[in-house]
Each structure stands twice: as C-alpha cells, then as structure tokens.
Amino acid sequence: MRPLELFALFWLGFAASWIVAGVLWRSKPTHTVTGPRVWLYRVLLVGGGVLLNEWPSYKLHIPRLWHVGLRGADILACLTLVGFAFAWWARIHLGSLWSGAVTRKPDHRVVNTGPYRIVRHPIYTGILFACLVSAIAAATWLTLLGFVLIVAGFWVKARLEEGFLAVELGPDYAAYSRQTPMLMPFWPKQA
Known about the structure:
single chain; mainly alpha; Four Helix Bundle (Hemerythrin (Met), subunit A); two-stranded antiparallel sheet; 7 helices; 2 strands; about 65% helix
C-alpha cells in the first residue's frame, strides 16, 4: 500500500470510528457554550483540515519542501496511529463526559487520571500529534499552514473550555490546571 493510501485509510478509519462513537456513546449536556469563539475554532479546524489534506496541494501543483521517502512516509503514517491511540485512550477514559462541543454534563467533575494526568486536553494533544506527522509527511507549505490552523483552532477551543470549566467546576479545576499542562507534556502548567 502506498503511503498516501495508508494515511487516508488511517484518517478515514479514525474519523469514522469517532463519528460512530459520538452517535452511539453520549449523554445529554446540561449546558453548551455558544457564540463567536465557537464558530472561530470550528472554522479554524475545518479550514486546517482541508489544507492538511494533500489534495489541495496536489491540485494547486504546490511542490514538496522536502521528501521523507517511502520508508519515512510509512513510519510517519504509523505514527498517526500513536496520536489516534492517545486521543482514543482519553475519550474512553472520559466515558459519558465526552462531548465534541464545550458542554457541561449532569455528573461533570474534574478527571485527572489516565491521560488527563499527562495533559488537560489529551484528545486535542493526540489529534495534534497525528496532524503534525501528517503535515511533515505531506511537506508542502499549504499542509503546514493547515497544521498551524488546526493548532490555532484547538488552542481557541481549549482556552474557551478552560474558562468554562473554571467557572463550572470551581476550585477543583483551578487546582488541576496548576498541576497539569494544557496541551503539551512538560510545558508550563497554568496557561
């Protein structure tokens, strides 16, 4: 299987499994955040996702900045699975508290175990890692721009979520924020 097909297979498999799980495994929120910042992070994530895909670079005849070779591309494709596995670990660990939007669930509480001991937003961290290795493999300025937009989208969403959870969960979330980095292990904890 060619690396491009491998990346496509892994990304489509992740997306399909994520969507199916979202339909089958959810609980009703008691409160959902809306407003311009929600639309901002959504536009950044969708726009970044479109550009991260190699198709726009191919159609626009944008040359690669470097070549990773077939073996390098295969390794990078497999590394996307590491990111997906981390994101899935976090989602399974959250259980019914998971939501694709910034929401409060009936039994909402601070989760600080499993992957949430490593970073406060491990789903975003896992997906960002998968996006980074995909951008490195694609190696065009357009795919790298897509990665930057996705980072910005998750940053906006994480900051929105942080403010929401600080109000909703109070001192427990503040204490958790002081001891656990937001998106990247070993980075400053309180952002």
